[in-house]
Amino acid sequence: MRFFLSGATGYIGSAVLEAGLRAGHHVTALVRDPEKAEHVSSRGATAVIGELSKPASYAAAAEQCDVVIHTALEHSKRLQLIDRQAIDTLMAAAGRRADAGRPACVIYTSGVWVLGHTQGANEDAVLDPPAHVSWRPAHEALVLGGSRGGQIRTAVIRPGVVYGGARGVIGDLLKDARNGLLRVVGDGRNHWPCVYDRDLADAYVRVAAAPDASGIFHVNDEADERVDDIVDAISRHVRTRIDIRHVPLTEARTKMGTYADALALDQIVRSPRVRALGWSPTLHSVAGNVARLLEEFRTACEAAA
Predict the structure, then answer these.
(1) How crowded is residue 119: how many other Cβ atoms within 10 Å of its Cβ?
(2) What is the distance between the alpha carbons of residues 45 and 30, in angstroms, rounded to a whole number?
C-alpha cells in the first residue's frame, strides 16, 4: 500500500514511518526542510517538503496515496486552526480519490485525554476532555463524519501516553530524573494509560492495512500504572539521587497552564478494537521496563547531540 504520512519526523510519526517501511509499504513523508527530507529518504521513504499550513505543498502528494496518516501537530498558537486546515485538505484529497474509484482512507491522531477522568473506558465512552484538548473531539468528528457513506474509510487513533526514546511525557520524566529533580503534578495516585512507541506504530499499520478498520481505536498497554509507580521505578534505576516533589494542581496550573490538568487525569482505558485486529503490546508497562527505557533514552540523546 501507499501511505501518506504527516509528522514523519515527530515522536509518533517517526515510529509510524519505520513500522510502515518494515511492513513493506511505500511511505510518502511530509517534512519541513531538506535536512529532514534527507533523513526520511535515507530510511527508504519518499520525502515531500512542505508545511501543514500550506495545503498546496502536500495536497497532490496525499491524493496519490491509498492511506493518509495524520500524526503532525503544529505547536503554536495556531495549532487548532492549522490542524483543521490539514484535516480539510487531507479529506478533500481522499474525496478526489474516491470520486475516481480509487481506495481512500484517512487516519487521524487524537489521544485518550479526550476521555477525561475515566475508569475502564472503551471506544464508545462519553467524552469529557480537559481544556488542553477540548478542541479534539470536534476534529475527530470531522474525520469520522467525512466518510461519505463509506466511500472513504476513516479512523481515529487515540494513543495513551507514549513512551520510548527521548521524547514525550515519559521522556521528560527520565530527563528530569537524570538531572536529579523530578516533579509530579498532583498526588501521583492517578493512572496513566501508556503505550510503547513501536507498539503504537504497529497499531497504525494494522488499522491502515485492515480494509474494514474504521471508527475509533484506543491504543494503550492496559498496565493501569499509577504515576507514582512509574516515578518510583525510575528512581530505583538512576544513579543520581532524585528530589521528588508532588506539586499541587493549583500550583502546577500557574506554571504549566491547562497542560497540568491533562497530566493530572486519572485514567484506566481499554483498547478492545485494536486488539481485535491482532494487536498486542510487546512492552506491557513503563515501570517494568525502566532499565531498557533509560538505555533507549541515552542512545536517543547521543544520536541527537
Answers:
(1) 11
(2) 10
In a domain, 186, yes or no: no
Q: Is residue 79 part of a domain?
A: yes
H-run or E-run covering 262: helix 258-263
Residue 86 grid cell? 490539514
Q: How many domains does the chain have?
A: 1
Closest by Cα among 112, 281, 290, 289 to 198: 281
CATH number of domain containing 204: 3.40.50.720
Judged by phi (left if over 0) then psi (alpha if -120 to 50, else beta), residue 283 lies in: beta
Distance CA 184, CA 251 (A): 11
Which amino acid appears at position 115 of this protein? L
Q: Over the stretch 179-197, which tens digit does the pLDDT of each residue have?
A: 999 999 999 999 999 999 9
Domain that holds residue 84: 2-163+194-222+269-282
In tens, the pLDDT along 212-225 reads: 999 999 999 999 99
The helix (run of H) or strand (run of E) holding residue 118 is strand 118-121
User: What's the length of the chain?
Assistant: 305
